[in-house]
Specification:
Rossmann fold, 3 domains, seven-stranded mixed sheet, globular
Length: about 375
């Protein structure tokens, strides 16, 4: 039997269950595994699992499922470790339905293993209830949950004539991230986002962050990736991968945390704009020994528990609201319409040029050097 395994998110990897489940499934046949999502990449790297879980491409989970469908495997497993059984099951429902829209036939069983090792862990056969579901339920002590139970408990709602999205399993005081942009903070354990003309206009159970909404722009609320709280919970020891440095000094520009940071892994230096973008990007780039020059304004929404930065990184903290203004001028003056430049020979050259640009904007700033 050919088995495809899609691993989503860092938590199922950090817990050790991704590898345990992959090894268990090998008892049933030939197993191939790939990642779905971005944040799980650092967890795969830290666990030295690149030869087990394919992270070569940036894919949303439904696209990873589709690849196995197109490879004509016999069964596909989705491994996830949501913040709660509700968030995990709703996640699986949305992934499976996005996947169905991308395929012409739906004859390959899709089975989700959710929160393994937890009392509320479950296994869901989204389209075909194979005997392997019952066997794994017994072996892993997981409750079998049907798709109808997920739909009736968490999805079904009356049509109010407006585009709204209920977000399950939230707690007060958590960041709300839509497509990797922080757009607000929860103040309740119930959260609903409301959109009009593909723009989020209101929220129930939280407070919106106008600056975040401006960054987000248009969004399809039905298909958007929405997360609350920390992206990665585990306390980890980051693994640094040795690689050849580019012959020329290559500087990259990044002003949105939702972009694929990994495409800059061959850079000498990355300039990052915004507190959250700097935090997430520097943590990922730490694995490749790449320093950052970050432009922040102290408006940090904590999205990871620990953020690592390479030695010799430089963080500029400018006046509130000026990080985007500085970023726009840095992009225009240093990069033009490109995302990389070879016009500078060292981090000191970049540092001096950015000071010149910020001084011309005439805003106050302070500099933090990472030693």
């Amino acid at each position: 039997m050919k088995i495809g395994v899609v691993v989503h998110g860092p938590n199922v990897i950090d817990s050790g269950y991704a590898l345990k489940l992959i090894n268990l499934l090998k008892e049933y046949g030939e197993v191939s595994s790939r990642l779905g999502g971005t944040m799980g990449r650092t967890a795969v790297i830290d666990a030295s699992l690149e030869n087990v879980i394919d992270i070569s491409r940036k894919l949303v989970p439904s696209d990873s499922l589709k690849i196995f469908h197109d490879d004509n495997v016999d069964v596909i497993f989705l491994l996830n470790y949501g913040k709660s059984n509700v968030t995990g099951q709703v996640f699986g429902y949305k992934v499976y339905n996005h996947y169905k829209e991308k395929i012409s036939s739906n004859d390959i069983p899709v089975i989700q293993i959710e929160r393994p090792g937890e009392e509320d862990g479950s296994i869901i056969a989204w389209n075909n209830n194979l005997e392997i579901v019952n066997e794994l339920s017994r072996k892993l002590n997981l409750a079998i949950v049907t798709p109808d139970e997920v739909y009736n408990s968490h999805i079904r709602q009356d049509d109010a004539g407006i585009n709204q999205r209920i977000v399950h399993g939230v707690s007060p005081g958590e960041n709300i991230m839509v497509n990797s942009v922080v757009i607000g903070k929860t103040n309740s354990d119930k959260l609903t986002l409301i959109a009009k003309d593909n723009h989020i206009v209101d929220i129930v159970g939280g407070e919106l962050k106008q600056h975040g909404l401006e960054k987000l722009g248009e969004v399809d609320l039905d298909s958007a990736i929405i997360k609350t709280g920390l992206l990665r919970h585990a306390e980890v020891t980051p693994r640094v991968i040795s690689h050849e440095k580019p012959n020329e000094f290559k500087v990259a520009f990044l002003d949105h945390a939702g972009e694929d940071v990994y495409k800059f892994r061959d850079s000498s230096l990355v300039i990052t704009i915004g507190d959250d973008t700097t935090l997430i990007s520097s943590d990922i780039l730490f694995r490749f020994d790449i320093p950052v020059v970050g432009i922040t304004d102290g408006d940090l929404d904590k999205v990871v528990e620990y953020g690592f930065k390479v030695k010799n990184s430089v963080i500029f903290e400018v006046e509130s609201g000026f990080d985007d203004i500085c970023g726009q001028d840095i992009k225009r003056i240093m990069f033009g319409d490109k995302q990389v430049t070879y016009d500078y020979s060292s981090i000191e050259d970049v540092h001096d040029k950015i000071i010149e640009i910020i001084n011309n904007i005439n805003c106050k700033y302070k500099i933090n050097y990472i030693n």
